[in-house]
Amino acid sequence: MARDKIPTSRVGRTARIGGLAAGQAIRQAGTHAANVARDKDGREAALERRHLEAAEQIVSALGTMKGAAMKVGQVMSFLDVGLVPEEYRQEFQHRLAALRDAAPTVTFRDMRKVIEEELDDRLQEIFGDFDEEPIAAASIGQVYRAVLPDGRPVAVKVQYPGVAAAVRADMQNLGLILRLAKRIAPGMDPKAIGKEIRNRIEEELDYELEAQNQRTLSRIFRGHPFIVVPAVVSSLSRERVLVSEYVEGTGFEELKSYPQDQRDRIGEILFRFYFGCLYRHHQFSGDPHPGNSMLLADGRMAFIDFGLFKRMPPGTVELEIAVARGIIEGDADSIMRLGTEVGFFPEPEKFDPQRVLAHFRAATSWYTVDQEMRLTPEYATQVLIDMSDPRSEYFGQLRHESAPPDHIFGRRMEVLTLAVIAQLHATGNFHRIAREWFYGDAPATELGLEEAEFFERAAA
Prior knowledge:
Layout: H1 10-35, H2 40-62, H3 68-78, H4 86-101, H5 108-119, H6 123-126, E1 129-130, E2 136-138, E3 141-147, E4 153-159, H7 163-182, H8 190-204, H9 207-220, E5 227-228, E6 241-245, H10 252-255, H11 260-281, E7 283-285, E8 293-295, E9 301-303, E10 309-311, H12 316-329, H13 332-341, H14 353-368, E11 373-374, H15 377-388, H16 395-398, H17 405-423, E12 427-428, H18 430-438, H19 446-459
Parallel strand pairs: 5-9
Antiparallel strand pairs: 1-3, 2-3, 3-4, 4-6, 7-10, 8-9, 11-12
């Protein structure tokens, strides 16, 4: 097990990240210079190699960190939807999975100090049993399995000592990290992404706030037929320690090899959880990556980790639904009117309404068009390109858009949910499901019927 000290100074962390960025820039320049003497195939091969090297450097750098940079690494790990060349993708996914699931750890002695300081008692007095080997690595902490004195098994999430200082240092360095990532995804806007991360990352340092988020969803889904959010043990949750019901299930990497019908079911559950929380409950987890869900033995899906969480302001979800209806119905004028009202189109005269409609449809057709479709990494890549990349045919108008922060956060959840489902190669008519929220339609799937019955009982 690695025993890494968390570097907390900005100077030390900047030197590490800046050196990587500079080295990659030099190699990139060398590639461009050599390309003058290469044919087309040679140029493409050289660029692919440089992209792969950049990806490996990012994984290496982020894998040694436990602050905001680690969160960026996790974003990349479930945004891998084809940006890396096909022949390298399997190895790259393996490296990203290792980053996501096996972050470096600090000694248990140090972690124990955090627990005892936060809960103001000795470990053996708080728990009936405590396994010192972590069962998972969170982005800024470790998760352990323990048993309460009354026999209940629990998961204990403990923040790394000193991580708060490391996170704040990472946020200062965020621009450097994102510029490294931009070499793989040229259309990425480091400024916009950096602003979003800075707006949310401080909240993730407070496990009491995360406990509140988790309690809210746990109440909403208590007794749900196929969704589980573990209950929080509030009496043992503090700023740096979060104790919740222990759940055990099959992880995402194994689920990817399940039969098609089971992957389709899992894909629908993922869609219903993340999108349904937004459109039905007006609050949602902003971190839909594979490590945050598992399939339980009884067929239900458990969802964990609610540090990155969003509660939508009044009226925001209604606006989102109105825009979605405009896309579905081909009402370009309504989309332009609504977008102008919230500042999405700061200079509406620069936009062709039909072109805007076509762009919005390209980015959302997987759930705004009534069709049975199989979601694949290649399709998810194209959606990602259409949403924000210079390679998009709509990039000319993208440059003039100004998406409100709430819209950005919702779209991030949307594209990351698509990326996860696409890795399953799941098939379904996601439009029919979405109509339950957009139009109040009756459910068109078996899971939808089960869920509708559950919420009807809950409202009675």
